[in-house]
Amino acid sequence: MMQWETVIGLEVHVQLATQSKIFSGASTAFGAEPNTQACAVDLGMPGVLPVLNENAVAMAVKFGLAVDAEIPETSLFERKNYFYPDLPKGYQTSQMAQPIVGPGKVEITLDDGSTRSVRIHHAHLEEDAGKSLHEDYHGMTGIDLNRAGTPLLEIVSEPDMRSAKEAVAYIKALHAIVTYLGISDGNMAEGSMRCDVNVSVRPKGQAAFGTRAEIKNVNSFRFVEKAIAFEVERQIELIEDGGQVVQETRLFDPERDETRGMRTKEEANDYRYFPCPDLLPVTLDGAYVDHQRALMPELPSEKRRRFENQLGLSAYDAGVLASSRAMAEYFEAVKDVCGDAKQAANWVQGELSANLNRENLEIGDSPVTAEQLGGLIQRVMDDTISGKAAKQVFQALWDGEEDSADAIIEARGLKQVTDTGAIEGMIDQVIADSPVQVAQYREADESKRGKMIGYFVGQVMKASRGTANPQQVNSLLKQKLDQA
Amino acid sequence: MHDKTLTELAAGLQAGEFSSRELCQSALDRIQRLDGDLNSFISVTTEQALADADAADQARAAGDAAALAGLPLALKDIFCTQGVRTSCGSKMLDSFVAPYDATVVEKIRQAGGVSLGKTNMDEFAMGSSNENSFYGPVKNPWDLSAVPGGSSGGSAAAVAAGLVPAALGTDTGGSIRQPAAFCGITGLKPTYGRVSRYGMVAYASSLDQGGPMARTAADCALLLETIAGHDVRDSTSVARVVPDYSAELDTSLAGLKIGLPKEYFGDGLDPEVETAVREAIKVYESLGAKVCEVSLPHTHLAIPAYYVIAPAEASSNLSRYDGVRFGHRCEDPTDLEDLYKRTRAEGFGEEVKRRILIGTHTLSEGFFDAYYLKAQQVRRLIRQDFLDAFDEVDVLMGPTAPTPAFDLGAQKDPVSMYLQDIYTIAVNLAGIPGISVPAGFAGNRPVGLQVLAPHFAEAQLLGVAHQFQQATDWHLKRPAFGKEMA
């Protein structure tokens, strides 16, 4: 039986989070009425000219720096010429020969915690096309140009991945980087990250690559995994049956979990790239690049290391908490309020994550703010409330009963009683009410008393409605029962 | 009134000799009476013009008159005008009304200038005779059997016939200078990047440049001051202070070094044109200038390089005319491909199609290096030729075109038509400014002297032209056409 190796390369289109389009002042907001966010430039009206959005350049440079890439001093916009109704000018302004981001690398983490590096071939800036709407137009096609001119950063990897899992880990790593940098919202459902997957197979040990198929527009982590799995199986079966893989573009059908060949065009595409004469070459000097570097936030890998080394978290905890910028920022805010990284980590990964998962919420949508959670942890740490009461308080915060842990503790009377006199009073009452148990306790061996005292502790806690400090109750009870 | 220059009319308005309304009305009357023979206008915007004239008169009465307040002029129909059709001389845009003004139109408006309408042109600015217009050819007012030149033929003919004192044109390979020469007026192509291209329908983006066409260099200076300058909407416009061109017109020519490119006086140059140009140069010598011969060794490569680069850019620039969003659309397309094919087959004229084909071919895989990249290399050599020459001399002079205006229909072969631009085209490839100044006649048809200067030396160029016009009266000659109408 032949052993096969899968080879995967990815082209990921990341929609940059600029306010306006890459070459015009029109808004990039998602979900507006068709054609309400397309100005004369986006419509490709006669005489209009593009003006490069400097924010898109800054974002691309930050991405380049985050993946250790070279930032060439000069990059160039070119025109990719083809006719399509949702491409208003008859060309897409893109980059080819001289992209803004040169070769770099991304570290990916696999499920078993191991890491490896995937090389980036380059990343380039380009404008998005509009959308062709084929439904609801009675045999005609509607064109929505709101998306036309939205800035995209196309990140092209080397064919360095060897499994669907690695491909997914790579996309997740890119997702973390772009959301950390704040250069994209990373919302895959709205098309903010779209992947073209190049897949081929080759006999294990063979150096030459097999013929690849390109699967277009695979737009979720899960679909990437499924599309690759299907495609690998298809190609292996095809070859083992004596066939050949043809280089082609395929489409993933998420309803059937399969890929299908797209209608091959009769003539080969010739995009007739040439430098766009309306845009000057982009020149970035060292000072500009340094300035962008200085503006960059801490990246996931750096954060993970800091959580581990400086905050003393476990490698696992550090990895989970650093996996998204929102999670990391939440955790750090909790830590800053309560002053204890381990407690903060436990609560964020424990109670908070459980609640978020149950209600299918992102951390950004958490009803409990980092300040509230930090305040709650403080009260546990200074013994104001017991750990048990803390869970009640958390749930009350989640349900929005009060604005702060303190307010809930106050309203529900959950404050631990540490007044010895008050506790003694309750103990005396319990002892007076439990003559049989007291007698049994006093007759028992020292070795059995430890277990038996639990009954009395329970009674006292019940009498205090959980507010008595358990340690204090324990030691005072011991004193009083052991007297006599 | 129609014989006066822009500067004289400005003085007349200021002195209250006539109002802008009277001035514009008289020009509009003249257009109505004479343009049937000339065909220099595609659209005449009478109502808007009179409203603008009234507004200018009111502003002047209020003591608030801007530089061009109340002065009539015309715009080549390549400049987008909000609410007024911008056809670009093409059936494709016969129905196109832009929702915005070109930057230069905006600037003219802000300066109080009154547009009387949009002038005829070769379709998409592709041509040297104005015979490639969907709206029919323009006649040369000096001889109605002759072409006015192109592509800004309508603007040149309108100024020469005294329909307007000035007009805006565009110049991609000589389209301001050659018609200016053919019609006996003054036309300036500014340095690439001096004037915003925003709202100017693109032909070849790296070569296109808008500029003034008028009777005198002084009028061109007044107009250039108004339209020049950096525009945030055009990344290729240059952020450089716009000089006060009018103030620098009187700079003395003593010691001016003039270079005569020997390549501009070779085979194919009409002897009468050569005589007129050499006489003009003698005038300069008499004004204290020194003349020497220089060489621009790559001149012979300019036309081949241009006819690779310009069509390449045009093929891409004109892709947007697909019948989907604006402009001509074929009837009842059966599918997408049919929509594209018939829309473009019907909407574009022969010369435009020819250049789209050439451009598409030269950008194709397998030909790109041999054509496009090679042409770009040649372009750099041509630019270097000029830079080297300007190390030796201040300005270059020669004929604007090899012949005077030719007869309508005389140039049947596209290549012989392309050769019309032999002295003008290299200037666009190099990006330097050039001006054509009336310098005599060949028979009854005007001859233009072309003066070229280094990048952004428009002030010098205008001064050199102005000094010539102080010493000669070629720019004051008027055609017999329309004379009976005072």
State the share of residues found in helices of chain B, binned by percent.
25-40%
What's the number of extended β-strand segments of chain A?
Answer: 15
Residue runs with pLDDT of under 50 for 5 or more positions of chain A: none
Query: How many β strands of chain B by DSSP?
Result: 11
**Which H/E pattern describes the elements of chain A?**
EHEEEEEEEEHEEHEEEEHHHHHHHHHHHH
- CATH fold category name of chain B: Amidase signature (AS) enzymes
Structural class of chain A: alpha+beta
**At the fourth CATH level, what is the homologous superfamily of chain B?**
Amidase signature (AS) domain
What is the CA-based Rg of chain B, rounded?
21 Å
Number of helices of chain B: 15
Average pLDDT figure of chain A: 91
Keywords:
heterodimer; A: 484 residues; alpha+beta; Arc Repressor Mutant, subunit A; 3 domains; eight-stranded mixed sheet; 41% helix; B: 486 residues; alpha/beta; Amidase signature (AS) enzymes; eleven-stranded mixed sheet; 15 helices; 11 strands; 13% strand; ligase (chain B); ATP-binding (chain B)
Account of the 3D structure:
The complex is a heterodimer of chains A (484) and B (486). By secondary structure, chain A is of the alpha+beta class. In chain A, 41% of the residues lie in helices and 18% in strands. Chain A folds into three domains: 4-288, no CATH class; 298-412, no CATH class; 420-482, Arc Repressor Mutant, subunit A (Orthogonal Bundle). Chain A has helices at 54-66, 164-181, 221-240, 286-295, 300-309, 315-322, 325-338, 341-359, 370-381, 387-398, 405-412, 420-433, 435-443, 446-463, 470-482, and strands at 4-15, 74-75, 78-81, 91-94, 104-109, 115-127, 131-133, 142-144, 151-157, 193-203, 213-218, 248-253, 258-261, 274-275, 282-283. In chain A, the strands form four sheets. Chain A has an eight-stranded mixed sheet with strand order 5-6-9-1-10-11-12-13. In chain A, strands 4-3-14 form a three-stranded antiparallel sheet, with no helix packed on it. The radius of gyration of chain A is 31 Å and the shape is elongated. Chain A starts with a strand and ends with a helix. The mean pLDDT of chain A is 91. In chain B, strands 1-3-2-4-6-5-10-11-9-7-8 form an eleven-stranded mixed sheet, with helices on both faces. By secondary structure, chain B is α/β, with parallel strands linked by helices. In chain B, a hairpin with a 2-residue loop joins strand 10 (434-442) and strand 11. Chain B is globular, with a radius of gyration of 21 Å. Classes of the chains: A alpha+beta (484), B alpha/beta (486).
